[in-house]
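Run folding on both entries below.
>entry_1
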Amino acid sequence: MRGTVTAMDVKTNTIAWQHKWDTNAYNGAMTTKGNLLFVGHNDGRLIAYDATTGEKVWEFMTDAGVNAPPIPYEIDGKQYVTVMAAGNSLAGTKHGDSIWTFSLDGKFESVDDVVKVNADDTSAAGESESEDDKEGESVSSGEGKTANGLAVYESNCLACDGTEGANGHNGPSLQTSNSI
């Protein structure tokens, strides 16, 4: 399967520019006011193109398929782009679980310069939790967690992966998959 990233001139209904990819384009795209188009690739790259010309101006390799659309936002006058790299079973991409945030004026030489933060690690936010603090936490019953997990599965996965994880519409068999 192959895909394209295609920019259309809506005034003339013609293709302004197009990049043909070696895999399907199962990815979200986003444009900025600054005339950049950000799009994720199945191989893990987040790519920025000049929205007018289609010239690639930047790319970054993440650790999983970038199949979610990037999100632009501004804080205190500084613009950021955030994207989740988690992969997608239907696109056949490498799975992961990371969120990448970039400043449009930021610079780094390599992935070694990127700060990685574990979402469960509160010390990254300047807080820490002692073992004594953890002992006093209440734990909900396993039954409640199972019911919550089933509700999430039914809302998000059931159509593709089926009731037993093997009989859905176009989804992989979760019973035999090596990627989960």
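>entry_2
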Amino acid sequence: MNKSKENVVFITGATSGIGKACAEVFARNGHPLVITGRRSERLTEIKRGLTEKYGIEMASLSFDIRDPKACDLAWNSLESKWRTPDLLINNAGLAKGLTPIHQGSLEHWETMIDTNIKGLLYITRLISPGMVERKRGHIINVCSTAGHETYPMGNVYCATKHAVNALTNSMRLDLYTHGIKVGQVSPAHVEETEFAVNRFDGDEEKGDIYSDFNPLKSNDVAEAIYFIYTRPAHVNIQDILMMGTQQAGSNFIHRSGRIY
């Protein structure tokens, strides 16, 4: 089902990985986009590439989603035509560190909590009132299999994604009577992202964790998000839990080589 090509899609964390892949998929299908992230040069590059390739309208906002004042200033800087998104994709998120709880870094913990939970809340608080007023809209949060189960040394990251899962369900209860859909996608390992390298503070050797199996690709997740959004008006997909064929859970990966 094709949504109206006039429907604005707002994507957080669009400078890489799943967010960037979402921008590509929705641009390819003709949707005007607002893309956000901290790296302004990367946003400008993505915006230029997608507008030239697909001829769509786009706006970009460079700010730190962890800062509520920065979120507010960015949102209020938009022209009015961009301030009525039909779809909000709360994608911005990250993992930092992989250590047992008694050795964890407070800085890592705060970064994950401020980005994965509070950043999602700040943006949702800015955009959802307009959806309620219009009696229409869709919010899709990027959760994780870590929001459904835990794994050793994943402690705080798993906690933040469990919070995303809970917020998705709670937001739906708050908003469904206003005609607003709320759902999420929960992927396992995904390559073509900066997730693993960021987790290890830029250490590419430690972040090379996909060489012996085939994980999901960022586009796989973006296509799932597009599927959720394009269901008929009476259908709300609440969650898509997805993994590569060689993965059966956070703790079960068949590292037998890249066979697919």
